[in-house]
User: Fold these one by one.
Assistant:
Number 1:
Amino acid sequence: MLAAILPGSRQRRVTSATPRGARKFRSGRASLATAAARAAPAGGTLAAGSPREAAISADKASSWVYAQDFVVEDDVLLRARERAAQLGTDAVLPGTGATLAVLAAAVDARTAVEVGTGTGVASLYLLRGMPEAGVLTTIDPEVEHQRAAKDAFAEAGVRATRTRAISGRALDVLPRLTDAAYDLVLLGRPALEGSHADAVAHVEQAVRLLRTGGVLAVDHALWHDRVSDPARRDEATTTVREIGRLVRDDERLLPALLPVGDGLLVAVRR
Ligand SMILES: C[S@@+](CC[C@H](N)C(=O)[O-])C[C@H]1O[C@@H](n2cnc3c(N)ncnc32)[C@H](O)[C@@H]1O
């Protein structure tokens, strides 16, 4: 999703990170109205003159980009992104990363789990939000990705005891982790890309792992701006949409869907 990123190329990065939906917003009032109507909650309508309508203007895309770039990334993060591009994988967008750091700090996350380490971009954000004594358990089957993430952690001066990298598939590893022992669980792209049953299983495992007051975060919750469009019925979009509903309707969770990055679904475990 992201082009190769070099220090000093922020504008190019943001441009390449702009999702399709953001471009749609730019194309004028008609498509804006369509997007706004589409964005009305299930079965609901968008009343003319409502606060929600007032908040959705043709400038929404530029606001999204501004928010995306609001927290400036340092060279360690940019190099981790470069490694992701070199290895043909991707990483959370900057606004998502910054939000994850804030969430980790807000819940004083001493224990966190990440599904899909990649080259460590989201991990770095989480570790920055976690207290010094916090330990991040991060899961990925790709040894090469984990090696790249370890390089990023070393560059960031993260002590080796603060990360527990587990090599394997999340659905094999998560069941071995302790119930209610974690302050934050991040489900990345691999939690959504498999079958519908697998996606549900990832969420179930995440909820099981969270302590009361812990936070669930699911990246890509707007799935390339397809989730909000009911005409999109491909398997991946349907799965992500259903995961959203599942989290929203789960009485154990207090949810919110943040339109940051590719969409970040967050929920507090009650
Ligand atoms: C998009 S990258 C993760 C990016 C990372 N969250 C970040 O922002 O830096 C997805 C990663 O998930 C890993 N992956 C694929 N299938 C997986 C699975 N079943 N369980 C855990 N990780 C998996 C891939 O090897 C890849 O490194």
Number 2:
Amino acid sequence: MRTILKIRNLAKQFRLHLQGGVRIPVFDDLHLELAEGEALAVTGPSGKGKSSLLKIIYGTYKAGQGEILVRHDDSWVDLAQAEPRQVLEARRRTIGYVTQFLRVIPRVPTLDIVSEPLLERGIAPELARERAALLLERLNIPERLWSLSPMTFSGGEQQRVNIARGFAAHYPILLLDEPTASLDQENKARVLKMIDEARDQGSAIIGIFHDASDRKAVCTREFDLTRAA
Ligand SMILES: Nc1ncnc2c1ncn2[C@@H]1O[C@H](COP(=O)(O)OP(=O)(O)OP(=O)(O)O)[C@@H](O)[C@H]1O
């Protein structure tokens, strides 16, 4: 399997400008490589920087130093240095990101939220909606809710809508920040199966799972931040 992500020398610290310029160091000299078909669990105690690492890879947070080389359309792009336009391109086709929180846009129906990543790739609306419907069904979202905005849905329902959206299109790299956090056992098992299927199809996964048995179920390797940086 080909390497798809190479992180070299990554350093990050936050600076709280509104609180006397206090510095919070997170990483120093972090190195990481990931190949297609691998599922990496990022571990470490609370506050060690697990979510920050995912956000840096996705381009939400800027790296302080270092390289984040991603294989995008068969060439290497350093997302730490990339223009915002390149980051958006990579997000559209190469890197997916699923958190436990859905960013709800008022009045947009659930089915449209889930089909959007497919429509963005030029998939015909009919096909995109079919795929979205399959995912919602698989994740136990009752059909009567599909035409509604998820704004009033329960936490677990919103999380499953977010997961359906994150898995609608194939991404070579998939970042998962506690995707199973507020799910019951049955839905959790379904999500873990979807993660496994994505990996079987060659996606490289980086996930944060608080539950050790979830990590064991889907991850091929662990990356312990207490040792990494
Ligand atoms: N936007 C931000 N501004 C300032 N500090 C931040 C910001 N985001 C994270 N931090 C700090 O960076 C450190 C790492 O936070 P992060 O959320 O990445 O940890 P984590 O390992 O994911 O924790 P948890 O397991 O509790 O979710 C923490 O000390 C946190 O306070």
